[in-house]
Amino acid sequence: MIVTITGSGTSQGVPVIGCECKVCKSENYKDKRLRSSIHIYYKGKSIVIDTGPDFRQQMLNLKVKSLDAVLFTHEHKDHVAGLDDVRPFNFSQKKPIDIYCNDQVFKALKREFHYIFDPKFQYPGIPKIKRFKLDKGIDTYIEDIKIEPIEVMHYKLPVLGFKIGKFAYITDAKTISESEKNKLKKLDVLIINSLRIKEHLSHFNLEEALSLINELKPKEAILTHISHFMGLHDEVQKKLPKNISLAFDGQKINLSQ
Ligand SMILES: [Zn+2]
Ligand SMILES: [Zn+2]
Ligand SMILES: [Zn+2]
């Protein structure tokens, strides 16, 4: 299984428009963060988690030639806004793209991308998608790939994280119930959101993410959904324990599963 971090930034991305801070002005490629998303290549399938506003650029950067499925975590724009750009895959694969989401996300997609779903607006140029329902506590299969949705809370909004074997991806979490945490033990790799140093209403800050990692004890943890307020990548990385890293765009994780 190969996981690629296609975006490790929070909702505004890094650099932030108009910002002159040292992180936004940094020349280090690890300080340039597209909106959070990952690509998974596993058992011959090409899967992405979320299609944020940078989806097109992310697919170009990674030179993704085919797409089998999209899993959605939640309906915030930084996670869904790029859905329209599945069209090149529709054209090249000559079929709809399978999307997996809960009813809450599907309702939002129908509102935000009404022309995709409204029979009145059907014509050859619009995205073609096929929706599969996925929800907390219900294992979902993409052929023989088992996906376990994990519910986390983004302040008051439920968000889904995904566990695939000994790998899990959690973003936009602020709290996780004990029963959902239990599903995240004995992982080889955990990718988890960590916004910045200071506390935030709806995201883990660095301290909260580190304390959760300490509780769950994955072999390796990677922090994502990062704001410019986190600081320079290389400076923050130096202060982290050996098995914990700050994500950067283009980072690849090879899992033996
Ligand atoms: Zn987000
Ligand atoms: Zn900045
Ligand atoms: Zn969000």
In short:
By secondary structure, the protein is an alpha/beta fold. It has eight helices and 14 strands. The strands form two sheets. It has a seven-stranded mixed sheet. A seven-stranded mixed sheet has the order 7-8-9-10-11-12-13.
Can you describe what's shown?
The protein is an alpha/beta fold. It is 21% helix and 28% strand. The protein is built from eight helices and 14 strands. The strands form two sheets. The chain has a seven-stranded mixed β-sheet. Helix 7 (206-216) links the parallel strand 11 (189-193) and strand 12. It starts with a strand and ends with a strand. The structure holds zinc ion (3 copies). One zinc ion binds at residues 16, 19, 21, 23-24, 228.
Supply database-style keywords.
7-stranded mixed β-sheet; Metallo-beta-lactamase, Chain A; binds zinc ion; 257 residues; alpha/beta
Approximate shape: globular
Q: What does the main sheet amount to?
A: 7 strands, mixed
Provide the low-confidence segments as ranges: none
Question: What's the overall average pLDDT, rounded?
Answer: 97
Number of domains: 1
- The amount of helix comes to 10-25%
Give the distinct bound molecules: zinc ion
Could you name the CATH homologous superfamily? Ribonuclease Z/Hydroxyacylglutathione hydrolase-like
Total DSSP E strands = 14
What is the C-level CATH assignment? Alpha Beta
Structural Rg: 18 Å
Compute the number of helices.
Answer: 8
Placed side by side, the strands forming the largest sheet appear as 6-5-4-3-2-1-14
Q: Which topology does CATH recognise?
A: Metallo-beta-lactamase, Chain A
The topology string of helices and strands comes to: EEEHEHHEHHEEEEEHEHEHEE
CATH architecture tag: 4-Layer Sandwich
**% residues in beta strands:** 25-35%
Task: Report the structural category.
Answer: alpha/beta
Terminus-to-terminus distance: 6 Å
